[in-house]
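Bench notes, bay 3.
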Amino acid sequence: MSKMKVVQVPKAGGNLELVERNIPDPARNQVRIKVEACGICHSDALVKEGHWPGIQYPRVPGHEIAGRIDAVGTDVTNWKPGQRVGVGWHGGHCFTCDPCRRGDFVNCKNQKITGISHDGGYQEYMVSPAEGVAAIPDDLPAAEAAPLLCAGITVFNALRNSGAHAGDLVAVQGIGGLGHLGIQYARQMGFRTFAIGRGKDKEALARKLGAAHYIDTAAGDPVAELQKFGGARVILATAPDAKSMSALFNGLSSNGKFVVVGASMDPITVGPIQLIEGRKALQGWASGIAPDSEDTMQFSTLSGVRPMIEQYPLEKAVEAYAQMISGRARFRVVLTMGG
């Protein structure tokens, strides 16, 4: 077989289209992956709508990829055909810029972004730089592994690097694609986990996911509610609403940290006095590199953290993307390949 099915964006602002292409061969430092599942992330809209500068079209989106290595390039020695692997947002790095020389690969000045710098996972086969590949545990199904390679790693990595310790109060703002995983990870890491959402109807799910307490922003002041318990050591902001984030900042305890993972184009409003009083911090967090993805999946396997997913075949990518972008999905949409 030399042909494969591909869902591509033909031009900025264009519609997703199903086409046939030749199966690509890996370059010397690449691996070829037979894709089994690929999550549809809200960030894929950057490709579809052309909001990321410099994208070359046609482009295949998708940066939550799970599958098996099908072939390796001549210089690849640490991967072999048949291995279960995944690829996330961070698709590779240059090894030579100043951050890379210091081992800070996630901040590589020439970072390769899967589905943006090169074709992603909305296809039956894809090639990836070898350094962007992460091993998937044998007992983690591909459709469940895929969302962990973006949504999962983002909240897991942010929480484990937040400075919070077991027993600390950690509040997760938003119960959506990121938040429903953040609540699970926070609980399994031993934090006193609070979930913050809008509407009483979300409480049952928040508690099922592991929240010890639910704060309904429609029913009262969430800052006052957090301060009843001494304030949060960490607030993980997952819902991409800058206004809601700004309104929560004063819910931190002294030495608390407000960690932003929900991407919004609007500014967060936090004044200097808010930062100085109580020595509080505001920090953004990107996803991570391949070893971080491996840690995320291994922790998920050990602790039972799983994404809630809706599955669609590759051929229904248009319908699947529409379900994601509408906000109706509960909570991650995953494309699965035939066979």
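Next record in the batch:
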Amino acid sequence: MSWPGWWQQTRAWPTRLLSPLGRAVCSIARQRRRQFEQAFMPTLPTAVIVVVGNVTVGGSGKTPLIMRLGEALAQAGIAYGIVSRGYGGKAADYPLAVRADCDPGVCGDEPCLLARRLGVPVVVAPQRMAAVAHLLQTHPQVQVILSDDGLQHFALPRDLAVVVADGQRGFGNGHCLPAGPLREPLAVLDTVDFRLCNGVSEDPRLVDWPVMRLQPQYWVNPQGEQQPLTAFCNRPVNALAGIGNPQRFFDQLVALGIRPLRTWALPDHAAPALIEKTVAEGGIWLMTEKDAIKCPDRDNVWALVVRPQLPSAWLNAWLDAVKTRLKVKYES
């Protein structure tokens, strides 16, 4: 869902007009969460489930964070897999096991990227418990399951919940949809186990949060050829971004000394046909990895590979929490 500018303004007329609906959405979300917490007691599977989500619509850096957490698990010798809703994909049947060569138009762009980058089991399904069950049935060695999004998917039990917020946008005007960007009231933040802010934020509600920084690494094209970060400085290039916050990517380019001739902000999870139509105009196109996997045959496309930098104390605390829950689960 796009993020209109007035979501950053508490007194904008659309906010005032829609605030009754926003209060209703907040109330319904609060009631749903309370009902599941009190009445819905799902049986946790043998694996530890970690939900990585956010409380606002749009991207906040969940997928890069999933990659970094996966790396930490692998380095610790912990077998893991990933489940996702597979937003943007149109598979004929679910659950769907995502292979590295999966068409992102079928499985979704983020699951496709995760499968290619990490080489671990990835399963998508609108009902995430179905994805979890399928993953554990086909890969019983998996000890930890990372859920890409799903904080508001209450039917999915979780051992740990991680919330990541977009530092640029913060929590906007603090209203629930459609008056603002919140999926549910901010009170839910008191119930999660770990918090992260994607980039330094001026939002007073985020100033004390640990900061995650997306550190650019290099450029890569669909054929796997790599170029250094300076490769496109002072060159005529174009840029597009079909992510939750396209401006974050465009700001990264400026920070790298790259000033595109044109920038195209596409909808999050933009359809492959839309990206293909855009880059077919010719010239060099710079984009995110999530966008680049949708045009695998183009030689004029270059994706920026980023790696999240996390505070070491935060990452160690998260990994210790996972190990503690693994110990409890396997002892029981």
